[in-house]
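Long-time lurker. I teach an intro course on protein structure, and each term I like to show students one example going from raw sequence to a predicted 3D structure in token notation. This year I'd like something fresh instead of my usual example. Would anyone be willing to generate the tokens for the chain below so I can use it in lecture? Attribution to the forum is fine with me.
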Amino acid sequence: MEVPNHKLRYCFICILFICILSSSLFAQAKSDSVRERGYSHQLSAGISFPAGVFSDSHVIGGGIDYTWSNARFGRSDKRIKKALGFSTAAGLDYFLGKTDNYNFQYRNYLYSYVYGGMIFNSGRKSSVSLLAGPSLQTYTKVTDLGYGITIRGAYFLKENMAISPALMYMKHKEADALWAAGVRYYFYF
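-- Reply from a regular --
Happy to contribute to a lecture. Here you go:
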């Protein structure tokens, strides 16, 4: 039995809302001790290049996302005491379709996601994160539920800005696994 697209979208929006709300409700309370320096909110924008079979049908992608982690983002003057922490993200990526040798135009591909995972502050000027979770993909007016994984490594250019390579894995029902690699720019607040 096929689920209508509007029900999948409604379900995904509800999951996104619950994840963001729960991250605010269950965030660690401030203590009397000295707080580790860092920002908790991250906005990012970037470009992605499809790899493997995905590159046969799509040429380039762009994406935006919001990520939360408790005081884990940004360059600091001293090393963070606990190097490993929790992180959550929500965003979307949009890939442009190609025209093949037979003049067939592939449709554009929209990928939206809600991820949870870990961030490792490897140094005062860098961090690595591994995130995974549910996703929705829309291709040729069909929306499908799936899952994805992304790994990112950030190098802090300034106290509240960073640049990062990113690798994405996207998997959906009855579709080949899709890979994309890209570069993201981060702004922390």
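Some talking points for your students: The radius of gyration is 18 Å. The chain has one domain: 39-188.
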